[in-house]
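Comment thread on ticket #2218

A.B. wrote:
> Attaching the input chain for the structure job we discussed in standup.
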Amino acid sequence: MNIQAQARKAEQLRKLHGGPGILVLPNVWDVASARIIEELGFPAIATTSAGIAASLGYPDGQKISRDEMLSMVARIAGAVRVPVTADLEAGYGLTIEDMITTVKAMVAAGAVGMNLEDVTGSDESSQVELPLQVEKIQAIRQVGESLGVPLVLNARTDVYLMPIGPAETRFERTVERLRAYHHAGADCLFAPGLNQGETIAKLVQALRAPLNILVAAGSPTIGELERMGVARASTGSAVMRATLGLTRRVAKELTESGTYDSLLAGTVPFAEMIEILARAKP
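C.D. wrote:
> Ran it. Output below, let me know if you need it in another format.
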């Protein structure tokens, strides 16, 4: 993919955050899942870092290397026609220099957007100090501009998901961080772990910027999120984990009853799978 084509895809992805309607992204973890989502008419592809890591034998939480993650992102971006936004966790490093290296490699992989988390480990002590996270976001913007690709940045805070700090101040701290990320250049703001409709609607009003909600058990429906003004809804690793759940059910049925009804329900036909993967690359 050349830089001009990437720049066009970046602008296309950015426009999808401004409506009409909500941008829905069932996150993918390999070429086959990406092509299935594209075939269904979704206007963009988003990867799941946890899904890609798991498919390569790593737990979530930046245990996979930058190169291995971006190798799969490159395969996905090279296999679809629509824009690809990559979940790159906290950027695979602690410094601004690490961030610059990651963003340059991401552009080389063909992605035009990225997710950036504000925690680097598995507990709240790893939350990046706000000034440094702002610097990282500014660096991403600058690198994209210098390369000629206006990257679409989805800046995430894990205040609710981890969770971090006292419950009574989570909303205010989430607003503080996401506003700072937006002012630093983030295009979309991401608050995973937030499922209560009233609080989501309140956050939309407080930010007045595109908001991404991670759908999960107990979340409002896509239609409800759209009516609240949410710009983007994603599934994270849930689709991949649902696939693992099906694998478990099939294996248990084969072992326990010797039948395989669950293997046949909703399975993509072999010929269709071959046809999807054999389609000419963009």
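A.B. wrote:
> Thanks. Noting for the ticket: The two ends are 9 Å apart (CA to CA).
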